[in-house]
Design a protein that fits this description.
Elements: H1 13-16, H2 19-28, H3 43-47, H4 54-59, E1 74-75, H5 86-102, H6 118-133, E2 140-142, H7 146-157, E3 166-170, H8 175-187, E4 195-198, H9 210-220, E5 224-230, H10 242-251, E6 255-259, E7 278-281, E8 296-299, E9 306-307, E10 310-311, E11 314-315, E12 324-325, H11 337-340, H12 363-376, H13 381-400, E13 409-411, E14 424-428, H14 433-442, E15 445-446, E16 448-450, E17 454-457, H15 466-488
Parallel strand pairs: 1-15, 3-4, 3-5, 5-6, 6-7
Antiparallel strand pairs: 2-8, 7-8, 9-12, 10-11, 13-14, 14-17, 16-17
Bound molecules: pyridoxal-5'-phosphate.
Pyridoxal-5'-phosphate (PLP) binds near residues 145, 176, 177 and 259.
Amino acid sequence: MPQYPNLYATINDSQLLSEEFARREDEKDALSKLRAEFVIPTKGDLRNKRYGPKDKLLENGEGTSREDDDEESIYLCGNSLGLQPRRTREYVNRYLDTWASKGVFGHFKTLEGGHPPWLDLDDALKQQTARIVGALPSEVVVMETLTANLHLLMSSFYKPTPDRYKIIIEGKAFPSDHYAAQSQLEHYNIPSSALITIAPPSPDDPYLTTEHILSVISQHHASTALVLLPGIQFYSGQYLDIELITRHCHGLGITVGWDLAHAVGNVPLKLHDWNVDFAAWCNYKYMNGGPGVIGGLFVHDTHGKVEKPKVNGDVQHDNDTQLVYRPRLSGWWGSDKSSRFRMENKFVPIPGASGFQLSNPSALDMTSVLASLDVFSLTSMDALRARSLRLTAYLEERLLRYDNKPPPYKIITPANPAERGAQLSILLSPGLLDPVLEYIEDRGVVVDERKPNVLRVAPAPLYNSFWDIHRFITIFQAAVRKAVASQSTTVTPNGAART
Ligand SMILES: *Cc1c(COP(=O)(O)O)cnc(C)c1O
């Protein structure tokens, strides 16, 4: 096994475990200032049973009151729902004011001090989205939601034939991806045995080696139509080698699509250069667009062309001839903007990803995504990644140091920083998850649990700090010690105390 020396491994306990060390790491990093772009809920906010900030409730004589109520919570759950950028409220208010004051004109009129007209918002979002996923602006579009987009993309890219019809996914695929692939097979009356799953070697070790992934693809290549994989696996946090796997598939004549739910806004991507056929993602995890907000998709340049037909090599300019483009399920928003409102029933796809749009997209959603993208524009994915590597290395090193003894948990995310993003998944010894969760949640820690034994902890580089991680570790390890201690005194059914 190759070793991956941790940046913080050589620092002694008396330094590394101190709060001061975390504070200094934050001060050294220029990107730490981006935390101020976000609303960080306080512990009191989280504890209150009614919605809204705690201050408002106390004014009304409601709500609890505990000593640490005003302390910022330790929110390490951006892999599930990113925090709210401060500017989101301002942008959304501007949207509401535009709608209130202009009605339908909000669609077309450029307004002083306003956002682009709603009709052009999708174009405004493309530029910034393209930078985040490493694409040409024409290759991306903000539309629909992730699972819907996977289906739309499969309707165009999954074309089963009697020879090639299998879909390869991974064995621990996010259920929605599994259902999407399975129902595509059902849609074509193909037996479910055509769904090939790449299984991890053991339930306790979800790591998929690249060799294993490639070998399963090779084994089924002659009958496979599509490979659909996650850029970053949601459970283990493993970052797959998108470029290499894509090249391998293409060498075997297989189309490959990527679900980037956990990769977008987390690691720098180069979808264009890696020749990815298609990809889709949501904008509510590391992208901070808001719960269930409109998603995004990528269609490589080579698949987005809209051309006049050629006869014997000559381009036909006759207006009545059918344009040549990749077939897809279509709607009016994918049709040429200049003729969209003529209602002529002639679909003229916009070249590139925008031609895959169906509906008039929610301007409210796009406004929220715009706020989030404007925060990303304050930095670059490369700079964020550099910060993220340090944050996650620090989290890892702190987790590994547990009272000078082996901890009753292990990290199941790859140790190689190149094979993971921000998230570390922690597998706890049996029976610890519930008491640990209860203890840390009571103290304002927000992480994500996967029953029976896994906690996912994701320091988001835009807003999480070394101080957050220090506070997390302090509370988490206290919780683990307490849970272990109470486990060892649990009375077994036959009355004997277990030790
Ligand atoms: C979050 C996530 C989804 C969610 O899909 P929606 O359609 O947005 O509800 C799907 N797949 C993966 C891999 C995810 O991580």
